[in-house]
Structure formats: C-alpha cells, structure tokens
Write a structure and sequence with these properties.
alpha+beta, eight-stranded mixed beta sheet, two-stranded antiparallel ribbon
C-alpha cells in the first residue's frame, strides 16, 4: 500500500465524480482510513481514493457514480476507484453538466464539463435542467408509447435523432417531436 495519505476533510464536499469499479482484491492489505455512518469504507492513496460501498449516486452534498465492470458483479458491496483529478466541483447554479447517450447499450448519463472527453458541443446545463433532460432522454430510449404518434416506422432512427437534439440543442422535447411528425 502507498504511504499513509489523508486528504482534507472538506475535499469531497459538493463534488461530482465517476468511480471505476475494481476487483475487491485491489484493497487487500489496505487499512480503512475512514468509515461513514452508513458503512462505506474509504482507502486513500496518493493517486486517488478507493470506496467500498453498497450505495452510489447522490451522497449528502455530492454526486458520486460507479461505472460497473463488465460483466457486472453480483456483490451488494462494490469497490470503486477514482483519481483525485476526477473530483470536480458541483453546485446547483452553474451550468456544469452535459448528457451522453449510448444507444447500443440503452444508457444515458450526465458528465461534468471538466471531464477530459467533453467535446464542447453538447449543451451544458444546471443540475435541475440536467435532471429534467436526462429523464426525457431515458424515456425516449426505454419506452415505446411515445413513438405511436409518429408516421416514421423506424423507432431506432427516431430515438437517435430525438436524443441527439436533446443533447445538442436547447429545444424543448415538444419542439423536437414536432420536427419529426
């Protein structure tokens, strides 16, 4: 294990971070450096943080997501790792988030504008706007009832076009749908 490393207690307040799921063996021999009231265990290194937890997403005043390994593990507790540079500031006022969609996997997520993969083309939104927009995108991806009002037969084509507009424009969902009717 790396030398004992302990970040400032307030380092993680109001942050967004995406952790990568790791095999539990990664922390064998590590000493728990912090354990939360809810049972999450934290292991700090000079490079980043390991977090062993059974809950991810919104945490107190932060948003920490876990990207699962493939194939997904069945364990209730999952180990995630994030580099220190992957912790980004979060607040409800600034336009910090953009959406990304993978139609092959039927997934939609939001990312922080400081993500090194941000292409500066997707529209940045506040937390509230992002929450509303991602719900619309996920409904387009997962539901089919909305498609019965279109004359177009190819739902996959419609999904691609509508989700693209939701990501790269400020048009409302209703405006976008009208363009395809």
């Amino acid at each position: 294990m790396d030398k004992f490393y302990k970040p400032s207690p307030n380092s993680f307040k109001n942050t967004f971070c995406v952790f990568k799921e790791m095999q539990i063996e990664k922390i064998l021999g590590f000493v728990v450096q912090y354990e939360s009231k809810s049972g999450s265990k934290y292991y700090y290194t000079e490079l980043g943080m390991y977090r062993l937890s059974n809950h991810w997403g919104r945490l107190a005043n932060s948003k920490w997501r876990l990207e699962s390994m493939l194939p997904e593990t069945t364990s209730k507790f999952k180990l995630g790792f994030a580099l220190w540079q992957n912790f980004h500031p979060d607040n409800a006022v600034e336009k910090l988030y953009y959406l990304e969609v993978n139609l092959e996997n039927n997934t939609a997520n939001y990312q922080h504008k400081n993500n090194p993969y941000y292409d500066e083309k997707a529209i940045l939104r506040t937390t509230f706007e992002t929450t509303k927009r991602i719900k619309q995108v996920r409904n387009i991806i997962h539901l089919t009832s909305w498609a019965k009002y279109f004359e177009h037969d190819d739902i996959y084509y419609l999904r691609e076009k509508i989700t693209t507009e939701l990501i790269y424009s400020n048009k409302t969902l209703e405006q976008i749908k009208k363009e395809f009717m």
